[in-house]
Write a structure and sequence with these properties.
It is a single chain. With about 200 residues, the protein is mainly α. It has 2 domains: about 70 residues, Tetracycline Repressor, domain 2 (Orthogonal Bundle), CATH 1.10.357; about 130 residues, Tetracycline Repressor, domain 2 (Orthogonal Bundle). The protein has 10 helices and no strands. The protein is elongated. The chain starts with 10 loop residues before the first helix and ends in an 8-residue tail after the last helix. It comes from Ideonella lacteola.
C-alpha cells in the first residue's frame, strides 16, 4: 500500500522518502525496488527513470538524510553566532522529537551504517559518513571552548550516549528511554561547559 504524500513532493522525492522509511524499518537488503515503488505510489518500471539501481537509490537516501540533518543543526538566521550549548541542544531536541520513531525502528543513521558494515562493505563509508558527520559537528562545537582532545572525547561520549539510547529504546519499545537519556545529556552538557569559562556566549 502506498503512503499518502504531500503534493509538493516530486516523484523522485517520494521515492527517496519511501526508500528511507523502508530501509530504516526493514533494512536495505530486505527492501526491494518494487516495495519502494509501491510505497511511493508509482509503477516499479518507472523507478529506473529516476534511479538506475538500488545502489543509486541508497546514495540518494544517504545524501538526503545528511542534508536534512545538517540543515536541522544550523542556527536560525536570527541566532547566527549562537553559543555552544545552543548548537548542541539543537541536536538533543532533534533526538527528543524523534523518540517515538527511534523506539519503533531504532536510529536510521546508525542502523544503516551498521548494516552496510556487515553486508555491503563498499557502501559502508558513505553510510558511516552520516554518523561521522554528526561526530564532526559535535567536535567542532566543543572545540570552540575546550582543547581538541577534550572536545573529541565529549563528542564521542555524547554521540555514543544517543546511539545507545536509540538501541535500548528500540529493545524496550519505549520512547521514554530516549527522553530520559536526553534529559541526562542536557545535565551532562551543562556540567561540562561549566568547566570551561570560554563557553560563555560569544
Amino acid at each position: 500500500m502506498s503512503e499518502s504524500w504531500p503534493e509538493t513532493l516530486t516523484v523522485r522525492e517520494r521515492l527517496v522518502e519511501a526508500a528511507a522509511q523502508l530501509f530504516a524499518r526493514r533494512g536495505f537488503a530486505s527492501t526491494s525496488i518494487g516495495e519502494v515503488a509501491q510505497a511511493a505510489g508509482i509503477l516499479k518500471g518507472n523507478v529506473a527513470y529516476y534511479f538506475k539501481s538500488k545502489d543509486d537509490l541508497l546514495t540518494a537516501v544517504i545524501h538526503a538524510q545528511r542534508d536534512r540533518l545538517m540543515a536541522e543543526l544550523q542556527p536560525p538566521a536570527a541566532e547566527a553566532g549562537d553559543d555552544v550549548r545552543s548548537a548542541v541542544m539543537r541536536l538533543l531536541r532533534q533526538v527528543r522529537g524523534s523518540a517515538a520513531d527511534l523506539a519503533l525502528h531504532g536510529c536510521p543513521v546508525g542502523s544503516l551504517a551498521g548494516e552496510m558494515g556487515r553486508t555491503h562493505a563498499a557502501r559502508h563509508a558513505d553510510a558511516a559518513g552520516l554518523l561521522l558527520g554528526l561526530e564532526t559537528f559535535l567536535h567542532q562545537q566543543f572545540e570552540r571552548v575546550m582543547p581538541a582532545g577534550d572536545a573529541r572525547r565529549c563528542a564521542e561520549h555524547l554521540l555514543a550516549l544517543l546511539q545507545g539510547a536509540a538501541v535500548l529504546a528500540q529493545a524496550h519499545r519505549d520512547a521514554g528511554v530516549v527522553e530520559r537519556q536526553v534529559d541526562q545529556a542536557e545535565v551532562w552538557l551543562d556540567t561540562v561547559l561549566a568547566r570551561f569559562p570560554a563557553s560563555a556566549k560569544r
